[in-house]
Amino acid sequence: MKRNGKLSASLHALLHMAERPERPMTSEEIASWLNTNPVVVRRMVAGLRDAGILSSARGHGGGWTLARPAETITLAEVTAALNERLIAFSTEPENPRCLVERAVNDALDGVRDEIEHLLSQRLAQVTLADIAAQCGPGVAAHLENRHAH
Amino acid sequence: MKRNGKLSASLHALLHMAERPERPMTSEEIASWLNTNPVVVRRMVAGLRDAGILSSARGHGGGWTLARPAETITLAEVTAALNERLIAFSTEPENPRCLVERAVNDALDGVRDEIEHLLSQRLAQVTLADIAAQCGPGVAAHLENRHAH
DNA sequence: CTGATTTGTAACTAATAAAGTTACATGAAA
DNA sequence: TTTCATGTAACTTTATTAGTTACAAATCAG
């Protein structure tokens, strides 16, 4: 998995699950799609389970399944469940007593809050089903070609 | 300097320069404000010089000065000059032949482009002078207190 | 019940990216 | 002509992230 690739990787996994909602998928399978290993997958999607987006089952025939229909899962929810900070600039003070630094960081914090809010709104407009539709109308008919690794 | 702290640090430095536009400030001085060292400062602000925001002078009495008034320098320009990517999620493909992954990354790329544009618009509304004004009306009268390290 | 299978997690290791450092060249002023 | 400053390349250090190993806990098939 690429660095800072958790959002992309999670969505990738969720979409494959959306294609076969009836069948639980193991961390092992998911890991092979994402070029990573099962433990990383479990760690990554643990938040999605806690957020009620996925359910997991242990043991024989276990694995991961969508906890609700793809139409009801927005990218905003997925993003929030991952606890990733998407806006990258730091506003940690280097010297808290400097008023100039404080003013700079306050201004940047304000901008970040606004932009995170806008980002969240924008991500809330897209569901997993919307992206699945973008895979092309032929995709549903060619399941076996979707992962030609 | 903190990680991903270049935007904050650069603005911090620029504001101190805006306070004394007549006097060139050395990389050494700036570095001490930012808790870092002069070479890191030079590297960081090189882009600001190239963008016409700062001018530099070598030798005796040299250093860095604002190339134009603080009222005309927006945060958007500063951000662009730093060549930092502020939206942090990766959309590098893990497996380019997977249509699902492509659809996910295309969607995310679209969102990122939109948000980066909004961010840039928002940052364009704020000038260095605006932030200086936020330091409080008393600041100009107490220059010596602004860096009580 | 027992063994196979799968998630859950802690602890550790490796890779990567970012900042810091050293070294030295270049240019300007005293 | 010495001192002070930027400019930059090469290298080192640090912090973060991903990857790995190891093992416990749960579930199901037989």
Q: Could you describe the 3D structure shown?
A:
The structure is a homodimer of 149-residue chains. The first copy, chain A, has 149 residues and is mainly alpha-helical. Chain A has six helices and two strands. In chain A, strands 1-2 form a two-stranded antiparallel ribbon. In chain A, strand 1 (54-57) and strand 2 (63-66) form a beta hairpin. Chain A starts with 5 loop residues before the first helix and ends in a 15-residue tail after the last helix. The interface between A and B is large, with 61 and 61 residues. Chain B binds a DNA duplex (30 and 30 nucleotides) through residues 1-6, 24, 26-28, 36-40, 42-43, 46, 56-64.
Helix percentage of chain A = 40-55%
The largest β sheet of chain A comes out as: 2 strands, antiparallel
Give the rounded overall mean pLDDT of chain A: 92
Number of DSSP helices of chain A? 6
- Quaternary structure classification: homodimer
Q: How would you describe the shape of chain A?
A: elongated
